[in-house]
Amino acid sequence: MTAPDPTTLLSLATELARSAGALTLEMRATARLVPDLKSSVSDLVTAADRAAESLIVDGILAQRPDDSILGEEGADTEGTSGVRWVIDPIDGTSNYVYDLPGYTISIAAEWEGTTVAGVVFDPKADELFAASQGAGATMNGSPLRCSERSVLEQCIIATGFGYQPEQRRVQAEVLVSVLPLVGNIRRLGSAALDLAYVAAGRTDGYWETGLNAWDAAAGALIAAEAGAIVTDLDHGAPSQDMVIAAPPSIHPTLQSVLKAAYTTVSGQGRDD
Ligand code: IPD
Ligand code: CA
Fold first, then answer.
1. Which residue among 41, 45, 46, 91 is best mutated to probe the pocket of ligand 1, counting the most ligand atoms within 8 A of its Cβ?
2. 271 pLDDT exceeds 70?
């Protein structure tokens, strides 16, 4: 198998993210929004999530019929090319339903398991965050660099919460430990945008547990290409257990604060 050119994959992701973004804006303005429920009563999905995923999947397969695809709304295609696309057609569906700012279309392309291109598009703000492996990260074409702050007590850190009540109880207990040690906390409502904002230096760091591959794949590459360190709790690759993204100036401190908080919470007999 020949390795693909990440720039070609990035161009396709960009084109499809913009088209899907336009579709979601149009559906938000014209269609009746009756969300369905997914994993819990707070986990929403709309016709726009499904329509955007179909648009993206059809667009990929029209040009690259041998690729694999994993999408939040059920796309699961096994291809032979070694390229896999990981798609969240609307990350931040609650923001979308409530017409709040900050929902995104997230598209990543992996080559043999490594993300080599990623796009996070915020259609309401018309901001497109993009990166390809080794070529840096951009927002609407301008280069991005993560923040250089080094005092955690002065840093704005974003996080997010899952949809299961017990998972949220653990996340809330960790937040109780972390909040006094940071400048402030943000909960934007889209993990993909959280990671893109770390890349842009709009926040100083981000962590979340329980994410799926489609929430974080594109944003993690964008953050890393803007200079952030993106790991789990133990210096490994980010995973469903934990994603931490922060500049080198605060990543070690944030990671040890989170490690201590999770150790305390697990010591009380709970896991996440
Ligand atoms: C969610 C968002 C949210 C994060 C959740 C995700 P969805 O994705 O990224 O910010 O906290 O963990 O599940 O459900 O809006 O696609
Ligand atoms: Ca998501």
1. 91
2. no
